[in-house]
Amino acid sequence: MKKISLFLLLFTVLFQVSKAQETTRPEPKVTFVVHMRNGDQITGSSKIKTIIVSTVYGSLALPIESINKIQMGINNPNLDKEIILKMADKLRSSDPDEQQLAFHGLCAQEVGAISILKEYMQGESYIAATSSEFTVPAAISVLQAVHNIDEKATVNDIISFDDVCLVAGTCNISDKIEINAAVGSLQISRGDILTIDISVDMAESALAAKQFLITANKNISGNVDGGFFNTGIQLKTGKNFQISASGKVVLASLSNNNYTADGGINGAPAPNDGGTNAPSYGSLVFKIGENGTVLKAGISYKGKAVETGILYLAIYETVFNPNNSGAFKVKVKGE
């Protein structure tokens, strides 16, 4: 009986210590960089702890510190679809005034109306107008111009999380998102947002290390379409960090030669950079911030951040060829 009582007492103490550690563990500092459709950029924090993504397969709840990027789609489930469809129907009216009124009503809608009108045009009952200037395609063109939308804009939101995963659906940023920026609290409309980059301050994150897969058929420094991989890790000036890498890549743009992360070619030693960390072809490189200096990380790098910003990784090559293959497995660790 005494042994059981001692066991229960020990269990209670350990449980309380565990709970105390759990409650006192500092939350990671999460930074939001909101890229607006008009070209503006807003940086700050948010009270959002979880993003819920509704997909055709069900809902997925993602902790905010696991998310790297949200590409905002033009779909907005909060819009009154019935009203928009009624205005679209009135474009077929025989009354020119009613046509014009409905057209201007559509052109005043939020960006989400574009996806509703495109779906409307694909319906069996849709009849393309041949004489009127007030048409559904014309309304779509006006909305695209007003909201700075191009043909590549996605209907669904695309969420990048856990460094390598993507999911498409509708996230629970339904109407506005509140960002606490340097100028104060800002309410930003969903339709005005192009992308949101989310980063975790490594100095305050509970995650000691993060791993990434840098692929040769995408993450090439010369690839203007997302060549540099956004790790979501926020580094501060003077912060110690380490990068280690393994694996091989084949670069079709360089005669299908094999490269290791330090730039070694076809099994040969890596070129000597004289301690300058100058990039060499095929090597793993990094930069801090979108406009930071590109430096060679190689197989193993250890140093201090020379500026504050998000850490980006890529494979160094000035020409991008999608036929490249292979990848580097990369680990980033703070000290």
Task: Tell me about this structure.
The chain is an alpha+beta fold and 335 residues long. Among the domains are: 81-146; 207-335, Galactose-binding lectin (Jelly Rolls). 19% of the residues lie in helices and 36% in strands. It has helices at residues 2-24, 81-90, 96-107, 113-121, 136-146, and strands at residues 30-36, 41-45, 50-55, 58-63, 67-71, 157-161, 165-171, 176-181, 184-189, 193-201, 209-215, 229-235, 240-246, 248-251, 257-260, 284-288, 295-296, 300-304, 309-315, 325-334. The strands form two sheets. Strands 1, 2, 3, 4, 5, 6, 7, 8, 9, 10, 12, 16, 17 and 19 form a 14-stranded mixed beta sheet that branches. Strands 11, 13, 14, 15, 18 and 20 form a six-stranded antiparallel beta sheet that branches. Helix 2 (81-90) packs antiparallel against helix 3 (96-107) and helix 2 packs across helix 4 (113-121). The chain starts with a helix and ends with a strand. The relative contact order is 0.15.
List keywords for this structure.
335 residues, alpha+beta, Jelly Rolls, six-stranded antiparallel beta sheet, 20 strands, disordered N terminus
Which helices and strands appear, and what pairs or packs with what?
Blueprint: H1 2-24, E1 30-36, E2 41-45, E3 50-55, E4 58-63, E5 67-71, H2 81-90, H3 96-107, H4 113-121, H5 136-146, E6 157-161, E7 165-171, E8 176-181, E9 184-189, E10 193-201, E11 209-215, E12 229-235, E13 240-246, E14 248-251, E15 257-260, E16 284-288, E17 295-296, E18 300-304, E19 309-315, E20 325-334
Parallel strand pairs: 10-12
Antiparallel strand pairs: 1-2, 1-10, 2-8, 3-4, 3-7, 5-6, 5-10, 6-7, 8-9, 11-20, 12-19, 13-18, 13-20, 14-15, 14-20, 16-17, 16-19
Helix pairs in contact: 2-3, 2-4, 3-5, 4-5
